[in-house]
């Protein structure tokens, strides 16, 4: 990874728009959740986008977070004893977290790319992924979520309805109002196609 210099012109505008999406209040809530979910040994980051990025960058805390949402014995990500120091190992750890989060149920459109976190390109996307993960954990309500359930919104859940055969048969005889009605319809006053209507005064 080559270090990039400052961006100018259009690139700078785009980057500043992305940076404005980052929510510092949301950062506090996510930090609190991660600490409650993983335990105090994960530490606490410096405030702000850069501190949050540096805290999560090597992928270890993210891996611990997703592992904490699974029962013992079925942890999806292997967490190394010592945090990886080599760049490709760190990126690999982040990629493992993303795969595990997707398997947990986070949809692709809510996922950040590894470079969004690693190079700090779009930390708002990282927040979006963590929010989606938290919302899923609260919605599943399987006993693995720790923390205040009000930190995340529950996802809408399927509400399946079962109908008996007789109810389904009755429904076939009902004409929905959006289909209109043919009551009182007649062809009075109609003329054949292409012929002018005779108006006699």
Automatic annotation (TrEMBL):
Q: Where in the cell is it found?
A: Cytoplasm
Name one matching Pfam family. CH
Gene Ontology biological process terms in this record? epithelial cell differentiation
Q: What is its main location?
A: cytoplasm
Residue stretches making up the Calponin-homology (CH) domain: 24-137
- GO annotations of cellular component type: cytoplasm
Q: Which UniProt keywords apply?
A: Acetylation, Cytoplasm, Muscle protein
Xref: InterPro entries? Calponin-like, Calponin_repeat, CH_dom, CH_dom_sf, SM22_calponin
Family stated for the protein in its record: Belongs to the calponin family.
**What is this protein's record name?**
Transgelin
Q: Which organism is it from?
A: Chlorocebus sabaeus (Green monkey)
């Amino acid at each position: 990874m080559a270090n990039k210099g400052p961006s100018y012109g259009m690139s700078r505008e785009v980057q500043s728009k992305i940076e404005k999406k980052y929510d510092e209040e949301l950062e506090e809530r996510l930090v609190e959740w991660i600490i409650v979910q993983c335990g105090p040994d994960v530490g606490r980051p410096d405030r702000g986008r850069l501190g949050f990025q540096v805290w999560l960058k090597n992928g270890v805390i993210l891996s611990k977070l997703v592992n904490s949402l699974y029962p013992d014995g079925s942890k999806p990500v292997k967490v190394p004893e010592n945090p990886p120091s080599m760049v490709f190992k760190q990126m690999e750890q982040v990629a493992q977290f993303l795969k595990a989060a997707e398997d947990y149920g986070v949809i692709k459109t809510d996922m950040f790319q590894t470079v969004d976190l690693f190079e700090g390109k779009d930390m708002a996307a990282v927040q979006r992924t963590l929010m989606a993960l938290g919302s899923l954990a609260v919605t599943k309500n399987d006993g693995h979520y720790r923390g205040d359930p009000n930190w995340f919104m529950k996802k809408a859940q399927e509400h399946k309805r079962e109908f008996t055969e007789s109810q389904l048969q009755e429904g076939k005889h009902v004409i929905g109002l959006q289909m209109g009605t043919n009551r009182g319809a007649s062809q009075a006053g109609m003329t054949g196609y292409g012929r002018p209507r005779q108006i006699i005064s």
